[in-house]
Amino acid sequence: MPQRPIRSAVVLAALVLPVCLLAQAPSSAPQVSARARQIHLDAIVIDTHADTPQRMLFEKGFDMGQRHTNGQIDIPRMREGGLDAEFFSIWVPSTVTGPPAVKRALDLIDAVRESVRHHPNDMMLATSPEDIRQAVAEHKIAALMGVEGGHMIDDDLGVLRMYYDLGVRYMTLTHFLDNDWADSSTDKPKHNGLTPFGKDVVREMNRLGMMVDISHVSDKTFYDAIAVSKAPVIASHSSARAIAHHVRNMTDDMMRALAKNGGVIDINYEASFLSEAYRQASDKLGGDVVKQMDDMEKKCGGNEACVTMETDRINHAMMTSGKLPKVYWTAIVDHIDHAVKVAGVDHVGLGSDFDGSTMPLGMASAADLPEITAELLRRGYSPEDIRKILGGNVLRVFGEVEKVSQEMRGTK
Fold it and tell me: Per the domain annotation, does 297 fall within a domain?
């Protein structure tokens, strides 16, 4: 059977861990210097993937304006961490297809838009690079959206266009399972990459000005997308397979192809994507993960936010107790380093997977993002290159995607 989403990874021994072990390990990060903090504040910091819409939709009383003790994203912690723009993930499980998937996606889009509406002094709905810059100028957080899984268009380009009109600015071609027109990295290939309709999807995304996201796709689907797309593509939340051999990560050859295309790999903070030791131990400890996750989803009553929060709590408990290897936040910068060496500093960004994955120790929330800037500075990166990684590269790609759209529409 295909693996289940990594956001629902290890849940073994959930009921036997003592309560005292359920707190996240304290951060081991050194103090952020005044220089590092200033560089961070001067940059436009963009994160390309967070699953917070699940909380917005399913968690009764969840309010982005309040500081929460679980999860990683809310306005106070985004402010504290200098996070200027967030792409909120419109995610529906791959097992939900057809009209129900479209309905769920629309509900999630509405939840994001409503969250922005309820916090007009702190958030602004953004659909362009100019909107992001305007939000920064107005001291607001830019809220953007990306559809995480092409199954949510229900094989209908009209639905894709509808999502664009509602503000969606990227789509991940697949999620955990193959869809009718593209192969996933975590399923048995059915199409040998993209089907002819799948290639039409990429072309229509180019025409619309919607970024093509290749996180989650099979290697062959990736190369097909690169060959078809007239615009740079992104990997919204993937890391380096050379460091952690997870199929969701990118090989060095894929990174080089992405760089040639002009795209960006946005590094994922999920522990099993960062550490090979953690990935292997998690797989061994997990046993029959599919059955465990079925049980967890039944316990949560279809509440995907509940599944995510429980999984994060349990996995951190096992890291702090030693049942799983400890993975620290500096591993994020190890993957950034590797991607920069392979693809170049113009092709690397941040794609945390906040509120959807198990974070490494020391990266408790968006409030800890300045640590990444401080570590990049300690490793010898220039302020200019740090600004590119923090968000400049994503802004460039976003703009180039818009330019291709204007050319295809004949509006330039």
Answer: no
Number of independent structural domains in the chain: 1
Long-range pairs, 73-80, Cβ under 8 A, ≥24: 73/354, 73/355, 73/365, 73/366, 75/119, 75/122, 75/123, 75/141, 77/365, 77/366, 77/367, 78/141, 78/366, 78/367, 79/122, 79/141, 80/366, 80/367
Indicate the DSSP class of residue 304: H
Q: Pick from 140, 134, 141, 124: which is nearest to 85 by CA?
A: 141
Q: Which residues pair with 142 in a beta bridge?
A: 85, 124
Other CB atoms within 10 Å distance of the CB of residue 97: 18
- Other Cβ atoms within 10 Å of 287 Cβ, number: 12
26 pLDDT above the threshold of 70: no
Contact 50, 73 (CB under 8 A): yes
Residues 152, 200: contact at Cβ < 8 Å?
no
> Average of pLDDT values for 28-57?
93
For residue 391 the two structure tokens come to 């968000």
| Backbone torsions φ then ψ of 192, nearest 5 degrees | 55, 50
* Alpha-carbon torsion angle 233, 340, 46, 247, nearest 10: 60
Q: Helical H runs in 301-378?
A: 304-321, 330-343, 370-378
CATH code of the domain containing 214: 3.20.20.140
Distance, in Å, from the CA atom of 172 to the CA atom of 218, rounded to the nearest integer, reads: 12
Residue 284: which residues within 8 A CB-CB, separation 6 or more? none
Q: What pTM, to 2 d.p., does this model score?
A: 0.92
Quickly state the pLDDT bin for 230 (edges 50, 70, 90): very high
3-state secondary structure of 222: helix
11 in any annotated domain: no
124: tokens are 């602004």
- Asked whether the beta carbons of 266 and 350 are under 8 A apart, the reply is yes
Flag whether 212 is in a domain: yes
Write out the residue range of the structural domain in which residue 235 sits.
27-279+327-355+367-409
DSSP 8-state class, residue 262:
T
Q: Where are the beta strands (DSSP E) in 91-134?
A: 123-125
φ/ψ of residue 382, rounded to 5: -80, 155
Cα 312 from Cα 264, distance rounded (Å): 27
- What are the tens digits of pLDDT across the range 62-94? 999 999 999 999 999 999 999 999 999 999 999
Query: Residue 265: beta bridge partners?
Result: 235, 348
Contact 140, 122 (CB under 8 A): yes
